[in-house]
Design brief:
The chain is mostly helical. The chain has one domain: Methane Monooxygenase Hydroxylase, Chain G, domain 1. The chain is about 85% helix and about 0% strand. The longest helix is centred in the middle third of the chain and has 36 residues. It starts with a helix and ends with a helix.
């Protein structure tokens, strides 16, 4: 399998992609709401609560992508007759970038 094919397997597609785009649009709206809250001099507590909601939403996006990444790594490794440990190692490298 060449590098281009491996990159394609590693991409998010289908229903997952649509779900992620919907979530990201919602997050975009939440961030705009945060900007308005600051412009309107809303209380620090209200702003922090909204920031926490945005943070949780971003983490959910990342977890969905990471879950897809793990499945992709395992499928790719097993398809070429490799070992699951190699897929987990590759996934771990990606996961470390998030945390």
């Amino acid at each position: 399998m060449n590098q281009h094919q491996e990159d394609h397997i590693d991409k998010v597609s289908g229903d997952i992609k649509e779900d992620l785009l919907k979530r990201l649009r919602r997050i975009e709206g939440q961030v705009r709401g945060l900007q308005r809250m600051i412009e309107e001099d809303r209380s620090c507590q209200e702003v922090v609560y909204q920031v926490a909601a945005v943070k949780a939403a971003v983490v959910q996006v990342a977890m969905t992508i990471l879950s897809n990444q793990l499945a992709s790594c395992l499928t790719q490794e097993l398809a070429k007759g490799g070992h699951p440990e190699a897929a987990v190692q590759h996934f771990t490298e990606v996961f470390k970038k998030f945390y």
